[in-house]
Structure formats: C-alpha cells, structure tokens
Design goal:
Blueprint lengths: L6 E7 L19 E2 L3 E2 L2 H9 L4 E6 L3 H11 L9 E5 L15 H7 L1 H4 L6 E6 L2 E3 L4 H10 L3 E9 H4 L3 E5 L5 E6 L4 H4 L6 H6 L9 E12 H10 L5 H12 L2 E5 L4 E3 L3 H10 L27 E2 L3 E3 L2 E2 L4 E2 L3 E3 L2 E4 L2 E2 L4 E9 L18 E2 L4 E7 L4 E2 L4 E2 L7 E3 L3 E4 L2 E4 L4 E2 L6
Parallel strand pairs: 1-4, 1-6, 4-5, 8-12, 14-17, 15-18, 16-19, 17-20, 18-21, 19-21, 21-23, 22-24, 23-25, 23-28, 24-29
Antiparallel strand pairs: 2-3, 6-11, 7-13, 8-11, 9-10, 9-11, 26-27, 27-28
C-alpha cells in the first residue's frame, strides 16, 4: 500500500493578462467572470479541494484586490473541514522596497519562506486561468510510482496548438527527455512529434499523426525537487527557464491527461469557452454534484423571464429578462435586459449588485441594464454596464480590431468594458 502524502497547492494568479485586454482593464485575469456566476480562479481552487488538497496558496499581483476579496468571501473552512486559501502578494521589506514578481518561478521563490512553513511532501503548481475537471490524486499516485521529482501534466495537441505551448519528448516509460517552450520555427517542433505507438498505448481517438505532447502548465514537485530547482536555476520563469533545467537533471515524468482542458489566453478563447457551456457537451462539467465548481454564494432568486424566446442559453440567478429573444448566450447574475431587445451569441457577465451603494463614489453607471429594442450579436458585456435604447452592436463593418470609448473589438468580438455607458441609438 502506497504511503499517504501531504500536498499543498500553489496557484499562480499574478499575471497582467495582456492578451485578454480589454477585459483585464478592470480585472486581473483570474478574477474575470466565467459562465455568468464563477470566476476563473474558482476552477483550479475547486479542482484542488475536490482532490482533497485543501491547503492552498494563491500568488497574486496585478489588480489583486478584487481577486482577494472574492477568495475571502467564498472559501471558508472550519475545524471539521480544515483547510485554507491564503493570498500572497508582493510585500514591502524593511528598507521600504517592494519587489514585484518577475515571472512564475520568481513568484514562488519570493514566497518560499511562507510556502515552506507547510509540511507538504509535494507542491502542486497550477495556473489561475485554465478550465478543466481533474482529480489530482491520480497525478500524485503516478508521481509516487515514477519516483519523479517533477511530474508535468500533459495532453496531445495539434501542430497549430503546439506553437503556443511547451512541448515534451518522452520515452516509453513516460520519462521526459527533452522540452521546448512555445517553439517559433516549425523545424524546432520536429523532434517532438508523437509516434503511432503513443496513440495505441493510450487508446486515443485522435489521428495518429501531426500531434505533440504539450505541457498543461500543471506541475507536481516533491518538496526537495522544488527547493533544489529554485536554488540551482535563479531565472524567473518555469516554462522558459526552469523546466528545461529540471529535465536535464532527470527524474521528470509526464502524466498524460485525457479530458477537456482550455487555457484562457485570448479574448476569442474566453468567449468560446463561455459559449461552450450552452452546448449539450458543455466541455467543462459544472453539473457534477460530487465535484462541484465552488464560488461565492449569492442567495438570489431565480431569474424572472417575461415572454422571451430563449434558445441554447444560460440565464443566471437574480436576472430580470424582458427581452424579445436570447439565443446561444450566457446571461450572468443580476442582469436586466429590457423589452424588444435581441441578444445572439453573447456573454453577459452580470453584476455584483443591482444598484451601486449610494454612499460611495463608484466610477460606474447609476443603473445597469440593456435598454429597449437593442440588437446585440457576438459580444461580451462586462459588469456594471448601461446600454441605452435602440443600440445596435453587430460589428456591421466586420472589423477585427477597434478601440472606442468603453467599447472595443478583438478577434471580431465586440467588448463593452466595465463601467461603460452606451448612449441611445449608438450603432457599431
């Protein structure tokens, strides 16, 4: 019988998320709304808790206040269900200097004195902006079996996907023998092409050609493996720097994952991942009661819907829907959509409250709604937005990129950012 081990989870949530701009103008990427009621950070935290790894550090930096508030309001433990979710941010030293995190490895290195107070045998390192359902206990069992200092979660990807990911070359025993991060040239990818035996061994349904084994950015280190690697290689980033050093040391293994996984790296990937929830397959399973996706409880009433045609959509709690039509859309908490309006292929994040507190000077509208007789297609509506009557947002000129006053277009998707007021009759 394998010896039980203690695992502490470290979630990297400090990046600025520049590729997700303008959604990250007002939010850190892990704090961005997902599925109308969750935050992206809820996914890795929930997977960790569902794996019974309940001691969690979240390392934050960019716009960390909203993220920290959400975590404090959501994740509560007690003496019968012990655990903790602690947020670590850059701190000022005795000389008044604040040392910002320069990369994923640097963020852990600078917080190592706090992290090592944990009695963990293994440290599970996750990203704060990925979607998947995964019980990490199987990964720990695999790491123990392989006696690996570092175990990297991986999955087969196409050549197009491989260009934006770290690629692993493994032997027949799943030992990692080579690694390259985001190869720029096609010839650099050639040594990492998977052979046919991989697909037969893993009963894959993917075609057995032009696929590569990519890192998911999920790392499981032994305690000694993590501290030793951070001491040996003083550079800042795991993907670009330290993983190659770990592979050269040996004792690195690849755990092959077979489920759904998505990295929220761009506006289009965020948009598509949300709308995937409206499809029958759903991809990310949010309906598994044994492995729930946790988020802040709201205690809101069910949505109130008046004579609206709704097709392939999610309407979240507290919403007031008077629209004419909502199709293939996600409508977030406390959304208000008025009469005659049509929404198609939209992600509406919802709101923290129906009205802003009157005693505070919030830089947001006095009311949040989509007005009457609007037509909105292929759009992301951020939190706390007011859209006037007879507004048309359909990207009529088929623009790929546009910057306006609170309204943007990225990858052909219209984005209305938090706090925007769109006047009556506006057309884009």
């Amino acid at each position: 019988m394998r010896k039980p081990v203690q695992v502490t989870t470290i979630i990297l949530a400090g990046g600025q998320g520049t590729r997700l701009h303008p959604l990250t103008l007002n939010h850190s990427k892990p704090a961005v709304s997902y599925g109308g009621r969750y935050r992206l950070i809820d996914i890795p935290i929930s997977n960790s808790i569902n794996s019974d790894f309940r001691n969690i550090f979240v390392i934050a930096q960019y716009l960390s206040g909203e993220l920290e508030h959400h975590i404090q309001q959501t994740y509560h433990f007690d003496s019968f269900n012990p655990g903790s979710v602690d947020v670590l941010t850059p701190q000022e030293n005795e000389r008044g200097e604040r040392h910002w995190f320069q990369g994923t490895a640097d963020a852990i290195r600078k917080n190592l004195p706090t992290i090592l107070k944990s009695s963990a045998d293994y440290f599970l390192i996750l990203s704060g902006d990925q979607l998947y359902n995964m019980n990490f206990q199987s990964m720990v069992d695999f790491a123990q079996e392989k006696r690996a200092e570092l175990t990297i979660a991986s999955l087969p990807v196409t050549a197009q996907e491989a260009k934006r990911m770290g690629l692993l070359k493994i032997d027949e025993d799943h030992n990692v023998v080579d690694f390259i991060e985001k190869p720029k040239e096609p010839h650099l990818m050639d040594p990492f092409l998977l052979d046919k035996t991989f697909f037969s061994n893993h009963e894959s349904t993917l075609p057995d050609k032009n696929h590569y084994l990519a890192s998911m950015g999920i790392y499981l280190f032994t305690r000694e493996g993590l501290t030793g690697l951070l001491q040996q290689d003083s550079r800042n980033d795991f993907g670009y720097h330290l993983i190659s050093t770990a592979v050269s040391r040996g004792k690195t293994a690849a755990f092959v994952y077979k489920g759904y996984w998505e990295d929220i790296g761009t506006v289009s990937s965020y948009y598509e991942a949300n709308l995937n929830l409206t499809d029958a397959s759903r991809k990310l399973d949010t309906y598994d009661e044994k492995n729930p996706i946790f988020t802040r409880p709201t205690y809101l009433p069910g949505p109130k819907i008046s004579s609206t045609r709704i097709c392939n959509s999610i309407i979240c709690e507290g919403s007031i829907i008077e629209a004419e039509e909502i199709s293939h859309s996600v409508i977030g908490l406390r959304s208000h959509i008025k009469k005659g309006t049509i929404l198609r292929d939209c992600v509406m994040m919802g709101n923290h409250f129906y009205l802003p507190p009157t005693h505070q000077n919030y830089p947001i509208p006095s009311n949040f709604w989509i007005g009457e007789d609007c037509l909105i297609e292929k759009a992301i509506i951020d939190e706390h937005v007011q859209i006037g009557n007879r507004v048309v947002l359909v990207n009529k000129d088929k623009l790929s990129h546009y910057d306006g006053n609170g309204i943007y277009i990225r990858d052909g998707i219209i984005i209305v950012t938090s706090g925007a007021v769109v006047p009556d009759g506006f057309v884009l």
